[in-house]
Queue: 4 jobs
Job 1
Amino acid sequence: IGTVLVVLFAAFYYLPWLKRVIENFLYQYPYVQKLPGPKGVPFIGSIADLAGDTTVPLKFWKSEAEKARLAGEGLFTITVLGRTITFPINGEHLRSICESHEEVTKGKDYEYLRVWLGDGILLSIGKRWRDRRKAYTQLFHFSMLDGYLETFNVHARVMADVLKENAGKVVEMGDISKRYALDCIGDTAMGYQFGTQRDPSHPYLNAVDIFTNYSQRYNTEPQMWITWIWYLMYHRVYKDALDTINQLTEDVMNERFRRIKNGEIDLDAKKKPLIDQFICLEQDGQWTREDVRTELNAVIFGGHDTTSTTLTWAFWALATQPHYQQQMYEEIHDIFGDSDRDCDNEDLKAMEFTERFIKETMRMYPPVPTVERELQNDFQMGKYLLPKGSEVFICPYIVHHNPEIYPNPSKFDPDRFLPENIAKRNPFDYVPFSAGTRNCLGQKLAMHEMKCNLSWAMRKFSFHTDGNLLDQGLAIEVICKPTLGCKLKVVQRV
């Protein structure tokens, strides 16, 4: 009888959710039958095809994308437990959703981030999103970007010192890149010195890892959906991590507001962290104090993991392809010689091969697994009508590995990003940071940060491994991580 009571309780508890799911399924089912893609068992859909480790979803999606391509289609659709999900596989089909000003609502899988990121730039919709977007566009003006390069140099120097201390050893470049990126974003966003490159035990670093790990698992491990199991086994650790994140943000804000009130900080200074610019908006009455906290969390979240992951993949690609590593070294040596000077804007412009290399890294190993939209209306994509309530997944990996766009897509080739080759492609054939109305406003800042990092790393060190480029798989977490990590031997140049 106990089992029966548990089943009845669960059925009653989840009845409203189940009712909504079934209603959506019944509305969308006639549309789905006309869309290309695996049909699977009604309602259950392709859940079995997605079961397995964190590498399985990308493999399944890529396989279905190839079937759609060979059939002459520009998209495919799958269903998973009543959810209808469409994947465009080329820029032509991506353009319609990316450029839409109406369909900007984020997909269901982002909800797990709302307890941290709130209703800020990453998750908001409507007028609130448009107002935030306008504010951020002004904040990320080119003149503002110039001021952050000095900060990147400071932390890149520290990273070079850390590598020097480990010269001759095998190190995990993923950890080193992550600490560098967190120190950079803490400084540029909050004027706060995390110092994780010198102190890897900083509680914020561990808290972010725990929060993102639990949040991602919540989407894929059904036992976590059961309330009593969640509170018994997961809630305390999850809440402690979230409290650590929020407390640090609150402490930094309180200290910043205090120093501004006491006249210790000049809000009119040309170079200032984003928090000061957010506070200006708060003092003008455009934002509330809660808005400042929400946007700081959003910038920290969006500004360190994607950058650090791309750097990790870049170091892996350099170590497994010594000819490209030599080419990058020669470019950087031509610019800097044997000097120890900082990287400036003219240097960034001259690092043409380095930029192409980074772009090819993000083509082969895009940091973001999917960018999701939940359709608020029936939506025309190519020759197909997608149903209201269904979702569109922009999967950069699928588009970037379409052989009709990038011949021999598993070959690493930075020359794909020579100007004459870029001109041949649809602008939406390359979407590592999404594109269109909800594109990443910080992508230029991220490129500056990565080029600055490599200018220091390649001047002073070479990186080595016995592994091959394609040994790695992509593990889907909040971002796409290398399945084997990135353990490289660091050799100091003489």
Job 2
Amino acid sequence: MSTVVETDVLIVGSGPAGASAALALSTYGVPNIVVTRYANLADTPRAHITNQRTMEVLRDLGVEQEVVAQATPQHLMGNTTFCTSLAGEELGRVRSWGNDPLVQAEHELASPTRMCDMPQHLMEPVLVNAAVARGSQLRFQNEYLSHTQDAAGVTATVRDRLRGDTYEIRAKYLIGADGGRSKVAEDAGLPMGGQMGVAGSINIVFEADLSRYTAHRPSTLYWVLAPGATVGGIGAGLVRCVRPWNEWLIVWGYDVDAGAPDLTTEYAEPVVRTLVGDDDIPVTVRSSSAWTVNEMYAETYANGRVFCAGDAVHRHPPSNGLGSNTSIQDAYNLAWKLKLVLDGTAHPRLLDSYTAERAPVGRQIVTRANRSIRETAPVFAALDGLSPQTPEQLWANIAARKDATEAAEKQRAALREAIALKVYEFNAHGVDLNQRYDVGDSAAIVPDGTPDPGFARDPELYHQPSSRPGARLPHAWITSGTRTLSTLDTIGGGRFTLLTGIGGEAWIRAAEAQEVEIATVVIGPGQRYEDPYGDWARLREIPDAGALLVRPDGFVAFRHASAGPDAEELLADALRRILGHA
């Protein structure tokens, strides 16, 4: 172990969290090395739903259009279907992922981006290629073994699986993005809540031309209510579209207490045939793998100079499509803070805000994802399909909904209601965008003395913008000359941004007087940026001469309603607090 490699940040894991951490850090000019024990990036679809907030992150990091070019677009995602098989009877649908006309308007008002379906085996190369092009080093088949840390940095022991030897990497900080069985999190002693192995699931990746059963009702997800579908798994059988309409992934369950079955083609193909429902269609099974449904989250995301992100700190089923989104957003939150600490702009205390801000989000999404699984049970219950019974009994119950009887009418109503409840899984726009960091918990947010407005509508279903410190900057379309752009396009780039309007000249001077780089944006008639629709004026929640200081990750850090002679002092004090110098 004579060789010691040095870098600023060592990242363990090249999945969504690790790859996006590398991309953000390299974009900000921070040297970093990524090690992964594997010989390649993800080779199966895995995570796929990519929500608007994540697309905003990718937009800021300069890879949004690469993702859009490869992803399944939003309009092909939204007829979430419940059926007895793809070729069988349809029981109902949910307009999903922003495809309900009313929800579509909410999506368009909330963000300049559109959600999409980007399978993980396509997403990872986009993130990694951009990161490496900007300076990240990626080492395949290099396995993290252990680490020690001291006041100046972290020393990790790594095994080169090709050469068979070990060596050390000395970094100022270590990011553990090594998945749901994270060794970094274990070695760091991060306390966890919840439990692992709640239920057993199987992924079966296969190819088949299923256009005759799906193209007329385009969707990412087709849920199959068939005998055995409630055993383990995620509440029902699932046929997921990977690439329309020829590449697919099935999720099926198994009894976790009995252990995973032998995942041969002989096992997988009958499962595929059952869920497709057409034995004449040629099917090619590409791979099968077992996994467990988890309900676990870390109570703290860091120990000293070691930070964890993604599945390492929140482990949950794929319901709501939250996993890779939250992982990418974890990394985005952490990267700018590391950058400012490493270049001396911020005190290391700034890094304490990572756990303060992201751990509550992790707990929320673990709870929501597991609740979504349980919310599938009423669909079966409406068909009296939860109790043990023969397949013939289940089919008879399903057929009974077509009868002209009072009991059948009640069954139809119960089924409609149960399927409609799944909107909390498939159209939870608020879960995607309503993250607000608590000004009482995070030192990187300066309270402005206003009361928490709460949410006027269901916070899981509806996005509700706010400019209050701790909230994501609201999106509004503004103009600059002949160009139309989002308010979100004026921020980011690894720096703070101060937004003001006519009469806010004192804030501009205050920003220019700071040692910290702050971009300035003035929005108003005759200014560089104008608000022709008046949307920004309605969303900003402060007068023209007020100011919003926005962090590099797009969250409002400081807000003041007016400009005065003390603007420079107020801004300097806010920055001291945000950067940990106060």
Job 3
Amino acid sequence: MLSDYIPILVMFVFVFGFAAFSLIITHIFGPRRAGREKLEPYESGMPPLGETHRRTSVKYYLFAMFFIIFDVEVIFLYPWAVIFKKYVADTPLILMEMFTFLIVLIVGLVYVWRKGGLEWE
């Protein structure tokens, strides 16, 4: 039984070994000269103007989180849509399960909307 996992273990050892080897080689042979120009941020070949570190609005993070949450939900919808036609004749329960899932999604979206998470002001 454990012998089935040997190829996966070999793959992980190979991947981590290759990554470690690459890091060690670049550390050994890479340039070590750090000057003033190399430590400055790169802005399209122009000298940087103003402060380079600015605060990012929380709205970007909230919008990204909502996108990830609803994107993952769509990932769960795709396999259901693929097998729907095959299993709907056997049991109508598959339709009720997906309606429940979609209702939870819609309730979550309405909650975010009512709380103002989708407003950009």
Job 4
Amino acid sequence: MITQNPVLVLNQNYQPLNICNVKRALALILLEKAESTVDGQELIKSPTQSFNIPIVIRLMSYIHKPIHPKKISRQGVLSRDKNTCQYCGMSSESLTLDHIIPKSRGGKHTWENVVAACIKCNHKKAGSTPQEAKMKLINKAKKPNTDSNYMIKGKTVKEWKPFLISV
């Protein structure tokens, strides 16, 4: 459905901020909270008006992005790890969180110490470290990058490229 197509959202200063869908972008434009910066060829019609489908919009007022790091959460860890067990590589919707250094041994609940793990691997590792369980992490656990350009990477539309740095 065309109203679900991705639209790049720029801050007032043209800095990439987020991605929304066409429906949300048109709502922001009609409410005069944003303007279309790049339009596509396709039209969307209402009974009284026609609109070019926006590809890039710019907000009319500046949005201050929080500079504090993203708080760790189950959803955040699963997203960072792409819903994949970091020990065996299995993709699953029923993953658990594993503390690399177990909490019982002083391990903290931080981005650098928590990974997605399937139930089988989590039970195998249990209260030991990966080395003790003879298990190796596929990817090093780290804080997710909150830079807008990084979050948008891989989802780009060619018309977005002038607004993105090194994507």
